[in-house]
C-alpha cells in the first residue's frame, strides 16, 4: 500500500511539473509566430510581398496576453502582407536598439510599428537614456529603409491611472510624442484609447500587484484550463489586463485596430 501511494504521488508530481513546464514554455520562452530569425535571417528578396515589422517587448510578442500582431495578420484586407513579430519578452529600449539591424532593417520592411518602454520604466532606466535609445532606433530605421514608421504610446501599467507608475509613464509617452514629431513619423495613441476605456469603467480599480506568480497564474488559466485572456482578466477583477501589465483580448483589439487604420492610410 505504501509503495502504491509513493508511486501515485510521484506520478502526480511529474504531471504537475510537466504541466508547469509546458505553461512556462508557452508563455515565457516560446518565440512568437514568424519572428525575424525565421523571416529575415537571410535577407528578403526585393520582390517579396509587403512586410510589416512589429517591434517591441512582451506586449508585442503576445505569448502572455493578447497577440495583437496575429489578429492583424488574420484580417482579410492584409492577407497579402507578411507580418514579422519582433517582440521579445522583457526587452527594454536598449535591447531593441541592439537588434534593430537584424530584427527590423534586415526584413526590408514596408512598415514598422514600435511599442517599447514599459520595461524601461519598471527597471528604472533614466528617461534621457530611453529618449536616446528610442530616437536612435527610429533614426536607424529611417536611414536604412524606406519604411513608414509608427510609434505607439505605452499602455497603462495596472488600471489605477492615478497610481505612481502611471504618473511616471506620462513622461515616457511625452518622449514618444516628441520623437515622433522630431523624426516626422506617425504616433498611435494606444495609451489614450486604453485609458479612456478604464475611465469609463468607474468604481475603484484593482490596485497594482504584478508579480511573476500572478503572470504564471494567468498563463496557467489560459494555456492549461483554456480560458480566454478576457476571462483571465475578469477572474482577477480587471478590465484590460491579465496581470496588471499584459493586455487581454479586449485591450489587444484596440492596438490591432489602431495599427490596421494606420496601415490603411
Automatic annotation (TrEMBL):
Q: Which residues does the UniProt record annotate as the domain SGNH hydrolase-type esterase?
A: 56-251
Q: Which GO terms describe its molecular function?
A: phosphatidylcholine lysophospholipase activity
- InterPro entries with a match to the protein in the record: Ester_Hydrolysis_Enzymes, SGNH_hydro, SGNH_hydro_sf
Transmembrane ranges?
none
Xref: Gene3D superfamilies:
SGNH hydrolase
Q: Which SUPFAM superfamilies match?
A: SGNH hydrolase (SSF52266)
> Where are the stretches annotated Disordered?
39-58
**Protein name in the entry:** Lysophospholipase L1
Amino acid at each position: 500500500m505504501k509503495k502504491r501511494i509513493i508511486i501515485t504521488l510521484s506520478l502526480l508530481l511529474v504531471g504537475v511539473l510537466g504541466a508547469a513546464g509546458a505553461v512556462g514554455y508557452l508563455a515565457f520562452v516560446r518565440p512568437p509566430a514568424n519572428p525575424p530569425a525565421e523571416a529575415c535571417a537571410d535577407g528578403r528578396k526585393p520582390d517579396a510581398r509587403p512586410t510589416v515589422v512589429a517591434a517591441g517587448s512582451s506586449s508585442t510578442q503576445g505569448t502572455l496576453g493578447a497577440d495583437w500582431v496575429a489578429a492583424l495578420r488574420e484580417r482579410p484586407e492584409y492577407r497579402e502582407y507578411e507580418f514579422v513579430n519582433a517582440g521579445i519578452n522583457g526587452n527594454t529600449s536598449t535591447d531593441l536598439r541592439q537588434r534593430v539591424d537584424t530584427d527590423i532593417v534586415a526584413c526590408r520592411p514596408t512598415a514598422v510599428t514600435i511599442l517599447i518602454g514599459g520595461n524601461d520604466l519598471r527597471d528604472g532606466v533614466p528617461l534621457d537614456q530611453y529618449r536616446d535609445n528610442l530616437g536612435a532606433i527610429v533614426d536607424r530605421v529611417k536611414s536604412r529603409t524606406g519604411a513608414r514608421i509608427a510609434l505607439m504610446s505605452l499602455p497603462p501599467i495596472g488600471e489605477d491611472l492615478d497610481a505612481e507608475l502611471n504618473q511616471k509613464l506620462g513622461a515616457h509617452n511625452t518622449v514618444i510624442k516628441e520623437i515622433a514629431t522630431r523624426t516626422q513619423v506617425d504616433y498611435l495613441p494606444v495609451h489614450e484609447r486604453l485609458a479612456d476605456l478604464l475611465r469609463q469603467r468607474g468604481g475603484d480599480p484593482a490596485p497594482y500587484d504584478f508579480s511573476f506568480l500572478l503572470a504564471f497564474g494567468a498563463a496557467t488559466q489560459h494555456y492549461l484550463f483554456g480560458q480566454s485572456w478576457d476571462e483571465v482578466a475578469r477572474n482577477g477583477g480587471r478590465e484590460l489586463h491579465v496581470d496588471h501589465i499584459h493586455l487581454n483580448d479586449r485591450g489587444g483589439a484596440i492596438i490591432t485596430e489602431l495599427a490596421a487604420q494606420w496601415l490603411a492610410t
